Structure formats: C-alpha cells, structure tokens
C-alpha cells in the first residue's frame, strides 16, 4: 500500500510539472504565432486551465515533500506530548477542510457536466473538463493528509516532518 501511495504522490508531482510544460508550450506557440501573423485560439484560456491543474496536482506532492509552509517557530520549543497533540489537531482540521473542498470540487464537476456548461472563450470547452484536474488534485491532497494523520496516530513520523530539519537555520 505504501508503494502505491508513494507512486500516486509522485504521479501527482509529474502531472503538475507536465502542466507547467504545457503552459510553456502554449505561450511559446502564442508568441511565435504573433511573430508569424497567426493567432492561437483561446491560448489564455488553455494556459489558465493548465495553471489550475498544475497548482492542484502539485498540492499532494508538495505536502509529502514538506514544501508547504509550516510555522514551527513556536512549536519547536514545545514538549513532545504537547507537540504531538498540536500536530494531531492540525491534521484533523486539515483533513476536515480538505474533505469539504474535495466533496464540493467533485460536486462542481458533476454539476458542470449535468448542466452542460461551456466556456465563453473563442474555443468552447465543456467546463467540467478543466475542473476534473482540480478535483483530482484536491482529492490527492486529501489522501496525503489522511495518510499522514494515520502515520501520526500510529506513532510513525509524518512525511512533512521528515524534511523539517532541512529548513532550520542551524543546519546552514
């Protein structure tokens, strides 16, 4: 199971990177098109969709690699028991918030599909299509937070804490 989850998080990171490359290609095509006298229809729309996908696909991978901002200035001085409870509470609150976001992201995709919403750009795109990566990314973050909550409850070190020592100034 651990191997499967790690592959899921890595795939999430790769998908995020792929979306960044896609943005680069779209913008480059748009620049070249302007120089050669043609337009790339809805380039701004598609690069915006790719940006949203890159952002949300990158959440789970970044969380697992300890890349999200954590304020440890105060809690690093706490005793182990107090810090454990604080970490547990934060993970529970994060899981509840991200579960809420996951539910409504999926609901948003479903409603866009049912009501056949389309974009208003030059190229009409069913809105549910660019919304799917957003929902997938937030669900992957939800899985990552649940994974770390389980690790915290079973006495293992959560993934984000593994990289915590790399960011302290005393290591510089």
Characterise this structure.
This is TRAP transporter small permease protein. Belongs to the TRAP transporter small permease family. Its main location: membrane. Keywords: Cell inner membrane, Cell membrane, Membrane, Transmembrane, Transmembrane helix, Transport. The complex comprises the extracytoplasmic solute receptor protein and the two transmembrane proteins. The protein has helices spanning 2-36, 43-64, 80-114, 128-153, 159-162. The protein is elongated, with a radius of gyration of 20 Å. Helix 1 runs antiparallel to helix 2 (43-64) and helix 3 (80-114) packs antiparallel against helix 4 (128-153). The protein has one domain. Helix content is 71%, strand content 0%. The protein is mostly helical and 172 residues long.
Low-confidence stretches: none
Structural class by SSE content: mainly alpha
Helical coverage, percent range: over 70%
* Overall outline: elongated
Number of helices: 5
Content of β-strand: under 5%
Q: Mean pLDDT, as a whole number? A: 90
Distance N to C terminus: 36 Å
Tell me the number of structural domains.
Answer: 1
């Amino acid at each position: 199971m651990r191997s499967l989850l790690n592959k899921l998080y890595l795939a999430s990171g790769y998908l995020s990177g792929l979306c960044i490359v896609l943005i680069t290609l779209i913008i480059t095509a748009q620049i070249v098109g302007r120089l050669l006298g043609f337009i790339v229809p809805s380039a701004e729309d598609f690069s915006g969709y790719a940006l949203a996908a890159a952002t949300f696909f990158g959440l789970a991978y970044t969380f697992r690699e300890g890349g999200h901002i954590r304020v440890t200035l105060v809690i690093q001085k706490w005793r182990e028991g107090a810090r454990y409870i604080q970490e547990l509470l934060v993970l529970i609150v994060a899981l509840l918030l991200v579960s809420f976001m996951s539910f409504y992201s999926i609901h948003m995709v479903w409603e866009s599909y049912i009501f056949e919403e389309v974009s208003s750009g030059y190229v009409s795109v069913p809105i549910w299509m660019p919304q799917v990566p957003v929902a997938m990314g937030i669900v992957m973050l939800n899985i990552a937070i649940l994974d770390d909550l389980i690790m915290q409850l079973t006495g293992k070190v959560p993934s984000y804490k593994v990289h915590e020592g790399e960011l302290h100034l005393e290591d510089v």
